[in-house]
Amino acid sequence: MIKALIIDDETLARENIKNHLKSFSNINVVGESANGFEGYQAIQKHRPDLVFLDIQMPKINGFEMLELVEEKPKIIFITAFDEYALKAFETGAIDYLLKPFTKERFKQVIEKCLKQSTSERPKAIEEYTEDMPERQNRIVVKDQNKIQIVPVEKIHYIEAYDDYVKIHTRKRKHLKNTTMKFLEKSLNPKLFVRVHRSYILNTNELTKIEPYKKHSYIAILKEGNKIPISRSGYSRLKKTLGL
């Protein structure tokens, strides 16, 4: 029996999917959620094999929610917007349903799901969604089992931390399972600069640049933190600051 979860902020959309699934006796709906926060908790609780996931939802979108899930189930994205349909498909999801969808289209997607090997899982989704508008305004993180939205203007700097990144704000530090490369591409380049292979700096926090060793420098931030600047990072920083 396949355990399925439905995450969509529209009640009628969730009911529609449940009605379509009645034709498939080997799929059992174990839960439903109305937003990404509830959806993440439901995935942790039910460990579904398959998730019907809306993209545009209040609070956090479907892509952001999926980033927080370490062991990803099979995903069928649901969207009313053509511009997200291709992105959803490229993430390695089984398929996507473009609202409103027909019974025939739904059946086609489910049959595709049933044929897919259980070892085939969604890819890392970040590289396909870095240009979404939300990306330059916020970063969604998981602190234990709580989801928090960190506005980018509160970030002082970002530090590489093994397979994670450590996001430093004035009050606390957040760990996120993503890459420096992704954040460098997705954050506003007029504000955030990769000054070192292990550091991305919010230029609004910069107060001083001091020489360090040969061809390297140190950035002094408002809170007193000191960030190393490589030779290439110094060139990028000067260009951003117009020096």
Plain-language structure description:
This protein has helices spanning 11-21, 36-46, 62-67, 82-90, 103-115, 126-129, 180-186, 231-241, and strands spanning 2-7, 27-33, 50-54, 74-79, 95-98, 138-143, 146-151, 155-161, 164-169, 173-176, 192-196, 199-202, 206-211, 217-221, 226-229. The strands form 4 sheets. A 5-stranded parallel sheet has the order 2-1-3-4-5, with helices on both faces. A 5-stranded antiparallel sheet has the order 10-9-8-12-11. Strands 13-14-15 form a 3-stranded antiparallel sheet. The model is unreliable at 122-128 (pLDDT under 50). Helices cover 30% and strands 33% of the residues. It is of the alpha/beta class. It starts with a strand and ends with a helix. It has 2 domains: 2-118, Response regulator (Rossmann fold, 3-Layer(aba) Sandwich), CATH 3.40.50; 148-241, LytTr DNA-binding domain (OB fold (Dihydrolipoamide Acetyltransferase, E2P)), CATH 2.40.50.1020. The chain contains 8 helices and 15 strands.
**Radius of gyration over all CA atoms, rounded:** 21 Å
**Considering DSSP H and I runs of 4 or more, what fraction of the residues is helical?**
25-40%
What's the arrangement of strands in the largest beta sheet? 2-1-3-4-5
State the helix count. Answer: 8
Counting DSSP E segments of at least 2 residues, the number of strands comes to 15
Mean pLDDT level:
87
Structural class: alpha/beta
The CATH superfamily name of the largest domain is Response regulator
Amino- and carboxy-terminal Cα gap: 63 Å
- What CATH architecture of the largest domain would you give? 3-Layer(aba) Sandwich
Q: Based on Cα principal axes, name the global outline.
A: elongated
SSE series = EHEHEHEHEHHEEEEEHEEEEEH
Major sheet attributes: 5 strands, parallel
What is the CATH T-level topology of the largest domain?
A: Rossmann fold
Portion in strands? 25-35%
Uncertain regions spanning at least 5 consecutive residues: 122-128
